[in-house]
């Protein structure tokens, strides 16, 4: 292998002095914990004289990251071992083997955060550590592990105390001493001398009965290797991510799809791929990649006669899949290649060899040779780039905009025209360096309906697509939709051209925020225009592309695309950051309405949730317990919300995140401390820049909103202030409060006591303990520094097939007796962190969870909530195998969705059993009527009982209940006791029938179930671990 390298010596001499390279701290955070730790690390490093910068991985670019000399990564694991939303782009880049070695010379360490209750505990910490090492970076300090199920703050503090500061100081000194370092990157690609081996990507769909696709696929791969071809991908269509793998294939990829089929149709995995391609792949989305495919349909006939008789009929069943690839823009391999193989009667080895031989001939015609790649690499590395004329693409939204685009086509040679129907079209144009004209329809000085849809779509752009849009160069064409006979309206439009430009500004601003460049804008009114005016508009747009800077050179075609490393110093950011002003709180007068501002930007990870979440209505609330007692903390509610916007198509067993509301008493108490009264609650607030209205500001929550909304929804009033808030407010406090907070900040043990679960102190209670009098805290300082209200997660309790337009949750109130906390207060008083006479109020009998109390006791039908949903590992298996569900209390939530889905499924015949536990059968048996109605009446072979069963399908083979407090004279038991009692049957279901086990509930219950399973199964604990690794035992636990 010959690698074409570009070497960059990073300059670090400034004014003749060697400056120590700064440490860059990168965080991947979902709930704000990693972000908070990052800020804390930066501040503590500054006290030790170490310069640090904190970066949100949402703004990750390979160029800037690779230019860093010393990196600290603090990453959380989200969901089933996945990266947090803001770290997806970084994780994809770091996991790509094409980038191996690009971080050579960088020093790093990783702190991973997670929850031990999940099977893939701290997965992102370990994966990030391994990826950084593979990328060539050198670990300067051990990987830290934080467990949120125990004491994550203690884990964090111990990791730092074990030697981080010495190791970090040494890493900075070593980087300082070594001076300029070489950043090595592949200039174009790793290229080989002579012809490059063709790469083949295999996808196979195996029938559950007598399928041969997997075996055929293995035979084809063996022949491929013999022919000198590289097997780049082997992907089962059983995998939900198969269509995503297909969508991410490299340019000029050769794809082989092997699927089982019978006279009844394609196998289920192939049908799934067909369905997902229609849903997730836009028409012609693969065209730009020049992907070629071969579809091999596999049958397993029993004799030659049936093979011959049914050949054409079986081949026809695969035609829809063939057409789906054509629709996506893939090109079929030579028609002479084998498209049908009957594994029951034909010579598989011979047919496989023929297939691969033909495929190799075709691959040689579509894959670039190494000599061509090498020539391109040398040219790119040694000669100036000649920029060809870029293609122009007009993308329209709205019928009037379409007419304008068609009119422009006749006057703009070489331009093409498409509907702006998806973000992938825009990203594809950016990747091909096309000059994009966005034709946007406006009516009555506001965006048209289609343009509003485009703006909504842009604001929800996922991070990977945002990264692709950084290369977009575009012009805005505003199309005014006026009445043909209304001269007054047309005159008004002409006089308000500046206003119309502002109408489309939000679309432009979003694209610019992603890194795109707007080069020009123009306005046309089709009812008041002619060829001359259109030509003037074209000249203005073309001039923008010419005068706005030379277009970026088109990407050089290659199969492997390593991410380039920049030629810049660690302190230099390659893309100019958006300038933001200093936020200042503005409170409107009573009755005054503040105008909405476009292009609002969230200030942190939690705030980003508020901006991205769907605002949906509550449709239904009902109590599920037979004998609720809310005052004692005994309440469980079913809450139904509408599934609209991004909640459409929610996943079975998925996770829904909600932003709770604080209790009204907490809101009222906090008002007094801010010098406000209840009459102020309906006043509007927003954030403006101190530097002037031209500057944007990063906001802690969406505005304008009322003071009521800000305090109830966006501020965490259920806990004491955090360290960050105390540091910000301490200089402004008066009297003893000033000195108390100063001592508190200097005392790590006291800070830990402050957030001890035993203290159970609310925000206003804490400030009262400190002796802060009403009106002492400004609303401006409070809203900018108060900890954000974090969203709470709940497992979805409904089936998207049974109720696609609504999502159900099963929520139990969280409550406990407040522990004695006078000793904690005494210790804080003795250390000077509280005034000597501080004492807690006497009416602290019970603690109630903020979110669960709100959902079970105060939420009403018609209220609105902020919500987002994500998939989880709790979903029904693709194969028809036995299902064992174990849930206690509200842990039954996902299984309620399971039995709803099983009830309407026609393809599931394997048995399903539910183990459910609660306290008392007449007090808290959740979904009692639904659950018992879902159980089959008839035991296998009982014809008489089977005839009695009428009505809806009963999907549960068995229901096993366990009541821990059943009443006098009865022995209490738990679900793990019932599992032990049914051990022999479960052993057969799991070991012999490949059954799956799902567990949902408290950690105590879940761990108890896992322990009993280790007693039942051969292999004990190791067998349970192996089954969890294979996702045949899936557990979602909390508490």
Short description:
With 1039 residues, the chain is an alpha/beta fold. The chain is built from 38 helices and 42 strands.
Topology:
Layout: E1 2-9, E2 13-14, E3 17-18, E4 23-28, H1 33-47, E5 52-56, H2 62-66, E6 70-78, E7 82-83, H3 88-95, E8 107-114, H4 123-134, E9 138-139, E10 144-147, H5 152-161, H6 164-178, E11 182-191, E12 199-205, H7 213-226, E13 230-236, H8 242-247, E14 254-262, E15 265-266, H9 268-280, E16 292-299, H10 304-317, H11 319-328, E17 331-332, E18 340-342, H12 348-366, H13 370-382, E19 392-397, H14 399-409, E20 416-419, H15 423-431, E21 435-443, E22 446-447, H16 449-459, H17 463-468, E23 473-480, H18 487-495, H19 497-503, H20 505-513, E24 517-525, H21 531-547, E25 583-587, E26 601-602, H22 605-612, E27 614-623, E28 636-642, E29 655-658, H23 664-673, E30 684-689, E31 698-699, E32 705-706, H24 707-714, H25 723-729, H26 735-745, H27 748-754, H28 763-769, H29 779-785, E33 792-795, E34 806-812, E35 815-817, H30 822-830, E36 846-848, H31 850-858, E37 864-870, E38 883-888, H32 893-904, E39 912-918, H33 928-933, H34 943-948, E40 958-963, H35 975-981, H36 983-992, E41 996-1002, H37 1003-1016, H38 1020-1029, E42 1033-1038
Parallel strand pairs: 4-5, 4-6, 6-8, 8-9, 8-10, 12-13, 12-14, 14-16, 16-17, 16-18, 19-20, 19-21, 21-23, 23-24, 26-31, 38-39, 38-41, 39-40, 41-42
Antiparallel strand pairs: 1-11, 2-3, 6-7, 14-15, 21-22, 25-30, 27-28, 27-37, 28-34, 29-33, 29-37, 30-32, 35-36
Helix pairs in contact: 7-12, 9-11, 16-20, 35-37, 37-38
């Amino acid at each position: 292998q010959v690698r074409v390298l570009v070497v960059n010596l990073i300059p670090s001499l400034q004014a003749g002095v060697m400056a120590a390279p700064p440490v860059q701290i990168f965080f991947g955070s979902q709930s704000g914990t990693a972000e908070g730790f990052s800020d804390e690390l930066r501040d503590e490093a500054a006290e030790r004289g170490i310069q640090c910068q904190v970066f949100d991985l949402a703004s990750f670019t390979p160029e800037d990251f690779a230019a860093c000399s010393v990196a600290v990564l603090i990453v959380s694991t989200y969901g089933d071992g996945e990266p947090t939303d803001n770290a997806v782009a970084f994780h994809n880049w770091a996991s790509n083997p094409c980038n191996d070695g690009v971080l050579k010379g960088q020093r790093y360490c990783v702190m991973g955060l997670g929850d031990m209750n999940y099977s893939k505990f701290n997965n992102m910490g370990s994966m990030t550590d391994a990826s950084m090492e593979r990328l060539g970076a050198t670990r300067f300090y051990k990987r830290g592990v934080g467990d949120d199920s125990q004491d994550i703050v203690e884990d964090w503090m111990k990791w730092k105390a074990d030697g981080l500061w010495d190791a970090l100081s040494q890493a900075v000194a070593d980087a300082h001493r070594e001076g300029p370092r070489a950043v090595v990157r592949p200039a174009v690609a790793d290229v080989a001398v002579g012809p490059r081996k063709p790469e083949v990507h295999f996808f196979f769909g195996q029938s559950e009965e007598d399928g041969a696709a997997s075996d055929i696929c293995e035979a084809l791969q063996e022949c491929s290797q013999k022919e000198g071809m590289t097997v780049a991908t082997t992907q089962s269509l059983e995998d939900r991510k198969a269509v995503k793998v297909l969508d991410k294939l490299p340019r000029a990829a050769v794809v082989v799809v092997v699927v089982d089929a019978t006279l009844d149709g394609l196998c289920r995995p192939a049908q799934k791929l067909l369905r997902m391609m229609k849903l997730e792949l836009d028409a012609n989305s693969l065209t730009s990649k020049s992907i070629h495919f071969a579809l091999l349909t596999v049958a397993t006939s029993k004799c030659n006669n049936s093979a011959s008789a049914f050949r054409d009929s079986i081949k026809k069943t695969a035609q829809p899949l063939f057409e789906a690839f054509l629709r996506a823009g893939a090109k079929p391999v030579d028609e002479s290649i084998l498209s049908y193989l009957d594994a029951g009667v034909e010579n598989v080895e011979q047919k496989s060899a023929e297939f691969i031989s033909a495929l190799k001939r075709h691959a040689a015609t579509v894959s670039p040779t190494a000599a061509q790649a090498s020539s391109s690499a040398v040219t790119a590395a040694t000669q100036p780039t000649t920029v060809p004329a870029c293609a122009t693409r007009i993308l329209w939204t709205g019928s009037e905009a379409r007419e304008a685009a068609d009119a422009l086509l006749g006057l703009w040679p070489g331009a093409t025209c498409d509907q702006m129907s998806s973000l992938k079209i825009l990203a594809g144009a950016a990747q091909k360096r096309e000059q994009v004209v966005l034709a946007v329809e406006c009516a009555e000085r506001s965006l048209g309906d289609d343009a509003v849809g485009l703006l909504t779509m842009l604001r929800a752009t996922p991070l990977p697509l945002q990264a692709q849009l950084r290369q977009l160069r575009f012009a805005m064409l505003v199309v005014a939709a006026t009445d043909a006979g209304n001269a007054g309206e047309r005159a008004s439009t002409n006089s308000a051209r500046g206003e119309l430009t502002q109408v489309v500004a939000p679309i432009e601003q979003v694209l610019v925020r992603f890194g795109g460049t707007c080069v020009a804008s123009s306005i046309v009114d089709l009812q008041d225009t002619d060829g001359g005016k259109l030509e003037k508009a074209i000249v203005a747009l073309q001039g923008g592309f010419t005068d706005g800077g030379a277009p970026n050179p088109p990407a050089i075609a290659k199969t492997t695309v390593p991410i380039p490393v920049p030629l810049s110093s660690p302190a230099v950011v390659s893309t100019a950051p958006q300038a933001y002003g200093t936020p200042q709180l503005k409170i409107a007068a009573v009755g005054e309405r503040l105008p909405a501002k476009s292009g609002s930007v969230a200030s942190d990870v939690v705030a980003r949730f508020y901006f991205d979440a769907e605002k949906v209505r509550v449709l239904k609330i009902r109590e599920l317990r037979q004998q609720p007692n809310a005052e004692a903390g005994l309440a469980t509610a079913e809450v139904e919300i509408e599934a609209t916007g991004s909640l459409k198509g929610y996943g079975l067993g998925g996770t829904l995140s909600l932003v709770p509301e604080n209790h009204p008493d907490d809101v009222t108490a906090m008002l007094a401390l801010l010098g406000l009264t209840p009459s102020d609650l309906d006043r509007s607030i927003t954030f403006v820049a101190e530097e002037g209205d031209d500057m944007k500001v990063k906001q802690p929550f969406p505005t304008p909103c009322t003071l009521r909304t800000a305090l109830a929804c966006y501020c965490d009033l259920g806990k004491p202030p955090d360290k960050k808030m105390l540091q910000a407010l301490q200089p402004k406090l008066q009297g003893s409060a000033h000195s108390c907070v100063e001592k508190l900040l200097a005392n790590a043990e006291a800070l830990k006591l402050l957030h001890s679960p035993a203290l159970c102190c609310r925000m206003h209670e804490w400030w009262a303990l400190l002796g802060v009098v009403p009106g002492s805290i400004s609303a401006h300082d409070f809203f900018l520094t108060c900890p954000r209200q974090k969203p709470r997660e709940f497992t979805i309790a409904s089936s998207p097939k049974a109720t696609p337009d609504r999502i159900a949750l099963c929520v139990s109130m969280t409550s406990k007796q407040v522990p004695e906390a006078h000793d904690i207060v005494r210790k804080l008083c003795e250390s000077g962190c509280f005034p000597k006479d501080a004492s807690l109020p006497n009416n602290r009998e019970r603690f109630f969870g903020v979110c669960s109390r709100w959902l079970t006791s105060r939420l009403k039908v018609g209220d609105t909530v902020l919500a987002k949903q994500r998939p989880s590992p709790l979903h029904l298996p693709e194969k028809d195998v036995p299902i064992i569900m174990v849930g206690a209390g509200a842990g039954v939530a996902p299984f309620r969705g399971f039995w709803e889905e099983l009830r309407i499924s026609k393809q599931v015949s394997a048995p399903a059993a539910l183990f459910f536990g609660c306290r008392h059968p007449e007090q808290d048996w959740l979904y009692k009527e639904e659950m018992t109605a879902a159980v089959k009446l008839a035991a296998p072979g009982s014809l008489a009982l089977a005839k009695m069963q009428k009505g809806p399908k009963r999907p549960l083979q068995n229901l096993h209940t366990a009541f821990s407090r059943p009443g006098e004279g009865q022995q209490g038991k738990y679900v793990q006791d019932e599992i032990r009692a049914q051990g022999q049957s479960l052993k057969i279901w799991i070991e012999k029938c490949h059954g799956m086990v799902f567990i949902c509930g408290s950690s105590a219950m879940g761990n108890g179930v896992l322990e009993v399973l280790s007693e039942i199964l051969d292999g004990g604990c190791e067998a349970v671990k192996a089954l969890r690794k294979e996702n045949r035992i899936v557990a979602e636990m909390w508490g």
